[in-house]
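Researcher: Re-running this chain for the archive, since the previous output was lost when a drive failed. Same request as before.
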Amino acid sequence: MLAMAFLFLAIFGRFFYVQVVEGEKLRAKAIGQWTREIPVIAARGEITDTNGVVLAENDASYSVFVRPNAVKDKEYTAKTLASIFSLDETELYEKLTGKKVSEITIVRRVEKVKTAQLEEFDLPGVYYARDNSRIYPFGTTLSRVLGFTSSDGSGLTGLEKYYDKYLAGVNGEIAYPADLVGAEVDGTAVYYPAADGLNLRLTVDYGIQQLAEAAAQKLYEQYSPVNAQIVVLDPDTFDILAMAESPSYDLNDIPRDDPELLNELSRNNLISDIYEPGSTFKIVTAAANIEEYLQRNSAAFSLQYHFNSSRTRTVDGTTIKCWSTHANGKHCNQTLAEALNNSCNPCFTDIALSLGTETFYDYLELFNFGKPTGIDFSGEAQGMLVSESAVRDCDLARIGFGQTVAVTALQLACAGAAAVNGGYYYQPRLVKEIYSSDGKIRETIEPVLKNRTISEEASGILASLLEGVVANGSGSKAYIEGYRVGGKTGTAQKFENGAIAQGKYVSSFLGFFPANDPQYLALVIVDEPQGAYYGSVVAAPAAAEIFRGIIELKNIAPYQT
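Model: Regenerated structure tokens:
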């Protein structure tokens, strides 16, 4: 009796396992054996700018499949398919007569006219299904930001990769009854619809993007640099309004056969590459100086304090020089405003050393140097910052004016924005909404405040001083009559193999307007310009050009006194 009971329980347990535990899996296997499936490709989601301008979309196309076991006349089928789709007939025939695969993809992304021709022949075992060809209406626009997809439609780079799980959707299929060799038999087909991908609405403004792209291209043509890079953001939210680089490439004509070139062209240098910022970093040093003055009320940080008139400083045996000769008293006994206007390195060396390592590094932490900004994009670099425990006085002195520290362009732009927007540091973003094709918002990506950097009072003072740099100092070529523009120039020598690379510079300008209530901030970087190399000459005019374009585009009225 016990043996019979055990046997009964064992059989019952097996039935339960097969029918319940493994039921769905086995049913799926059975359906797979007795059906053939034609894929229904989900439409990939669109990508639009903040105003709804479509930047990435799909062009309806089709893929053609063959099930060799269901083909009745393989020679005729190979000849017909080769004729319609311009394929090699011999190679195609070999595939149809092979025994290794149950299904062959003959061709992808063909136009409807070709499938119409195919239908005329009614070839047994040959099927086609809708596919999608990714197209970019503006070609080179935002090429390093949007990225591109693989041959099967998956995101490979840029936003196409980062948001692939939203854009991709879920494919469906049409299942037809078939026998064990794949030949179609009588019966009813079952349709499993595809779930199309979701759409992305960016923070990018296409109009401002066009201005940035035009400025970058002009810089590249005029100065023949390694590259020209521009980022424009909203200082109130850190929304990315534009990201442009030259040289660029056409997303509709990707050089897939040259991996090295493709990697170089598709890399977003504004986010993934680091460089020594030079004098644009003085914005951060000045911000720390002003905040400490307000907190300590110390004469060493007073806005009226006059720095040592010498054009050199010697720290740990290292001599730091001002770019000016200080001849005839020029640049001597400067206040902070004058030091910013003249971009005098020794003055900012004095500030960094007066702050001391602990305090200065506290500010570098607040401005998020040495770590990623957290932007919604893959491959962000974190920059390079000498650890606080290892930094020497000579290092600290150089960090004060933007050497011995490496940043990404995005890090510097965000730090500049946090310095002049009242002291608020946000996490930058490229995407603001994810929505379905019916317009329903599925996810909203809100601005995220990460921390405070300096007080609103200190930020207001700094913005005013930087307005003076444009009105009276090295940033004069960014001046726009009737509008309050602030900014700081930068001209950094490049280092190669631990030594200064002679004749190689990075020219830059970080600017914003209106200076009393910043709404737009632009960072222009030109790597190794030929001919001229000062940031005041090369980069500042490009920022002014972008700002003038924004003024016209947004119909911004002149400042009223």
